[in-house]
Amino acid sequence: ITSLIPIFSFQKVEGKMFSPLAFTLGFALIGALIFTLTLVPVLSHMLLNKNVREKNNPFVNFWDKIVLKGFNFTFKHKKLSLIVAISFMAITLFSGKFLGTEFLPQLNEGSLWITAEMPMSSSLKESLKTADILKKDIMSVPEVTDVLAQTGRSNDGTDPNGFGFVQFAVNLKPKDEWKRKINYEQLVEEIDKKLRNYQGITFNYSQPISDNVAEAVAGFKAENGIKIYGDNLQTLDKLADEVLKSIKNVEGVKDAGIIKNIGQPEVSVVLDRDKMAAYGVMPDDAQSVLEMAFGGKTASEMFDGERKFPIRLRYSEQYRKDEKDIASLMVPTQDGAKIPLKEISTIVKDNGAAFIYR
Q1: From the CB of residue 189, how many other CB atoms can be counted at a distance below 10 Å?
Q2: Please, what are the domains in the chain?
Q3: pLDDT at 87 over 90
Q4: So what's the pLDDT on residue 269?
């Protein structure tokens, strides 16, 4: 069990991966020890023949003689044996300086995983267009064979990403087919120089397996990360900027960035209860108009055989493109008249939360 202590000291990814193994093996050894000291002697007494005689084993006798000679030599030459033991211990400790300190070294998976974070307000059309341009730049590198891009979130909904988040799976040629004498790090730097020409886009470079392991263990796609918890998104965003300024110039830190929650442009409509009461407008009526105009609202249902389809009403895009269109929405009053939404509300354009992790 003592030999498992180094595994219990593992941190980060290796700790998450190998600590369960160490605990399982440790409990198994403890169980085996208890079993050996309690049940085995009882079963041996009950099941084994009482007249068992020790048999002569030449192999065991040979090693017994060698071990006995070693003990005799050690006890006769105590000082020499102590000096030899201390020397071996010193050599072992000194050689530890030349051992690798990373338990899980970075492996070459033969491919790259590049993430590009564009502004959160990016539309699907803009992201697809930009992704095609970035793919061409990546494909211009001789060592790259093909590039596959994924825009936004996956169909299973496990990645809550917007249209501004693009991931590139970059397959590379086998290392022995590279015509240029460059290594993996130099290849990444060359691709990064090409992509850095596009302002407003943050890039991160990893490998598929490493990226998935890091995300499963830590919850973010990076080798190292800092998590800030709190209830106020604006305060979290401010603290994230301060942390970034503190760490981006630290030696060894590269491509530091922030996963921002705030940055999604939105229009907030704050209803004025006093004005609504003066005009005789019900809150449900105002909210229903907004819902139908932008989200769509089910007005009826259509049946086609055994299938049922909802009929939804929604304003055409030309009537809901900006806050002016929102302000001109007509809201019904209790006496049958209609008034513009701007008369009973305050319309504010602001940056809201693009996503909230829970």
Answers
A1: 12
A2: 2-98 (no CATH), 111-225 (3.30.70.1430), 264-353 (3.30.2090.10)
A3: yes
A4: 87
